Amino acid sequence: MGRQMVIATAILLGLLNLAIGLFYALWSIADDGAAARTELHGFDPSQLLPNDGLFWLTANVSIALLVTVDVFVILLLVRLARQGSIETRRVDAHAG
Question: Which of 27, 40, 90, 94 could cross-link with 59 by S-S, CB 3.0 to 4.6 Å?
Fold first, then answer.
């Protein structure tokens, strides 16, 4: 059951990375388009995205949190791999 949990967690984290990455990309495209339309009309604020500051904050905080979670998961996996290799050495030492 432990192996299945690791696989399920890896799949969920991969999907989370994909979803947040797509959200950020779509927001960036929409924001750039809105800024271009605003400049095209002689800086018409009605062409900007509504709540663009909140969207900017949400998109950037999402990416920052995702990177933080990814770093912690990688560090956890490295630590678990090292502990696993230490446990394997202990078992081999006691067997020999």
Answer: 27
Segments making up each domain of the chain, as ranges:
3-93
Q: Containing H/E element for 48?
A: none
Asked if 34 and 47 touch (Cβ cutoff 8 Å), the reply is yes
Q: How far apart are CA 21 and CA 4, in angstroms?
A: 26
CA atoms of 50 and 13, how far apart (whole Å): 30
Distance CA 88, CA 47 (A): 62
The 10 Å CB-count burial string (b at 16+, else e) for 16-43 is eeeebeebbeebeeebeebeeebeeeee
| Distance in angstroms (rounded) separating the CA atoms of residues 42 and 40 | 6
**What is the H or E stretch that residue 23 is in?**
helix 2-40
d(CA 34, CA 79): 45
